């Protein structure tokens, strides 16, 4: 029997607490990841990074097939029983064991397919790690279902520092090469599995018989995840085969560096949004208001920063990675140009899943992956620094398709969506003009700092004088509603001259 929907105030408070801890933990994760990855990049160099990236391509696909989408199914199901957890555990054990063994046995062939027979030992290790990674997703998903972001973040962060900093950095210093990243990944997955299970203590009795709805939803999630894997990784396969391991190392490093701020911003939001939206999946009007307000806020906070990153790509890469990574700059700029569209997709995806529209998500992901794969093949004779601009183009097309699907589901008007995005677009234009103008008469590093400072000052001035240009009706309504319980919302309402509901 389906329980009564959670009251808006109760769900809002729990989601807000979860979001607070998600962002707090994500901030620490982003800082730790940035510092450790930069040190590892300097110690290992592009070649070793490229070899590890090739192994992770196979590991990521194997994990998605092995996990079977049961983690998301456990979160999405309105009523969950111990039998459901047993059912998920049984299938994950079967699938992960099969997938891991399959990767280990086919490692020599996979290595040749990726373009280097030397990758075979790394792929054998990746196959052995697939069951650990897949099994860890069950307790982690149960924590996400309960919006227990605090302990989830602490476990993840503690495992990351242990695996990558305390173990990985010494291994890199001693010359372990690509094995450094593979070993660190395995240790991190193991800590996640043990730590999360210690919190939720779910049943350890596996069973294959159970609710077919879990399997059906999980299968749809797997299809979508595989399509997303194709979009994120098949291009890397081609980069490795067509341009070599060093080019793949640069490509992967540029992708990771560009994605870090976006992942911090939307990664935590995705986890909370999926769990919270699943609880109120029948209230389309409420979901629509929340979606527009969230998109508006994320565009204002992130899009100008992404524009600055793209305009100053050469400065950032040289400052963070050093001269050893020369040639990564145009790749980084292209990835940064695609980040605004990535943010839109990252917000839309969880809502489609919560609305049981995984199949539509799958269609978009498949089309995007095939388009990018075909584009890389068609333009393989050109330098990678030019071909990489296919990535933001495909991201744009996917984002537009997502908006169309979600707009129909939530009955959103095109004008309402444009109001939510208008502020972010204006700030992007302002940041780009400032950056290009200052770079024409200042050296690189001062120009980057001045562009960021002036962009912030002008954005605050616009918010103060013309708030309706930047803030859509849904975001204003959310600010007014949140003012009684949030000091930050009250101060922001006062700053722009907007009366809060408590007044």
TrEMBL record:
What InterPro entries does its record include? Answer: Poly_Biosynth_Transport (IPR050833)
Q: Does the keyword Signal apply?
A: no
> Which key words tag this protein in UniProt?
Cell membrane, Membrane, Transmembrane, Transmembrane helix
Look up the domain of life of the source. Answer: Bacteria
Its main localization is membrane
A Pfam family hit: Polysacc_synt_3
Membrane-traversing stretches: 20-40, 52-76, 88-110, 122-142, 154-173, 179-200, 291-310, 330-355, 362-382, 388-407, 419-438, 444-463
Q: How does it sit in the membrane?
A: Multi-pass membrane protein
Q: Where in the cell does this protein reside? A: Cell membrane
Q: Which family does it belong to?
A: Belongs to the polysaccharide synthase family.
Alphabetized PANTHER family for the sequence: LIPOPOLYSACCHARIDE BIOSYNTHESIS PROTEIN WZXC, PST FAMILY PREDICTED COLANIC ACID TRANSPORTER
Protein name in the entry: Oligosaccharide flippase family protein
């Amino acid at each position: 029997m389906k329980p009564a929907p959670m009251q808006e105030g109760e769900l809002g408070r729990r989601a807000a607490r979860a979001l607070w801890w998600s962002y707090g933990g994500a901030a620490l994760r982003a800082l730790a990841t940035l510092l450790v990855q930069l040190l590892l990049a300097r110690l290992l160099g592009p070649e070793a990074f490229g070899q590890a990236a090739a192994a992770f391509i196979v590991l990521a696909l194997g994990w998605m097939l092995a996990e079977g989408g049961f983690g998301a199914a456990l979160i999405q199901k309105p009523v969950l029983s111990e039998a459901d957890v047993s059912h998920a555990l049984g299938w994950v054990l079967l699938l992960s064991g099969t997938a891991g063994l399959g990767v280990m046995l086919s490692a020599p062939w996979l290595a040749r397919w990726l373009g280097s027979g030397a990758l075979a030992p790394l792929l054998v290790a990746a196959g052995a790690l697939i069951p650990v990674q897949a099994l860890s997703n069950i307790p982690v998903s149960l924590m996400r279902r309960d919006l227990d972001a605090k302990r989830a973040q602490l476990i993840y962060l503690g495992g990351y520092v242990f695996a990558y900093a305390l173990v990985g950095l010494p291994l890199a210093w001693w010359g372990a090469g690509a094995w450094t990243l593979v070993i660190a990944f395995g240790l991190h997955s193991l800590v996640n599995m043990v730590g999360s299970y210690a919190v939720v203590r779910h049943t350890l009795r596996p069973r294959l018989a159970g609710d077919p709805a879990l399997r059906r939803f999980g299968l749809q999630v797997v299809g979508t995840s595989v399509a997303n894997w194709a979009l994120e990784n098949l291009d890397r396969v081609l980069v490795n085969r067509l341009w070599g391991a060093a080019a793949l190392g640069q490509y992967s490093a540029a992708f990771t560096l560009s994605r870090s701020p976006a992942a911090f911003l939307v990664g935590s939001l995705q986890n909370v949004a999926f769990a919270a939206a699943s609880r109120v999946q029948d209230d389309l009007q409420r979901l629509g208001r929340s979606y527009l307000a969230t998109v508006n806020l994320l565009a204002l906070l992130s899009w100008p920063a992404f524009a600055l990153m793209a305009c100053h790509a050469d400065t950032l890469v040289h400052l963070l990675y050093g001269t050893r990574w020369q040639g990564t700059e145009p790749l980084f700029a292209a990835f940064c140009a695609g980040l605004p569209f990535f943010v839109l997709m990252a917000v839309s995806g969880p809502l489609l899943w919560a609305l049981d529209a995984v199949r539509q998500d799958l269609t978009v992901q498949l089309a995007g992956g095939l388009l990018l794969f075909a584009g890389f093949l068609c333009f393989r004779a050109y330098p990678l620094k030019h071909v990489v601009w296919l990535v933001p183009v495909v991201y744009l097309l996917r984002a537009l398709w997502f908006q169309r699907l979600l707009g129909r589901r939530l009955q959103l008007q095109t004008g309402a969506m444009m109001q939510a995005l208008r502020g972010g677009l204006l700030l992007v234009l302002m940041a780009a003009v400032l950056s290009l103008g200052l770079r024409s008469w200042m050296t690189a590093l001062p120009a980057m700092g001045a562009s960021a400072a002036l962009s912030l000052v002008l954005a605050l001035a616009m918010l103060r004088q013309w708030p309706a240009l930047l803030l859509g009706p849904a975001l204003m309504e959310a600010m007014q509603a949140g003012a009684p319980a949030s000091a930050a919302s009250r101060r922001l309402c006062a700053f722009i001259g907007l009366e809060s509901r408590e007044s």
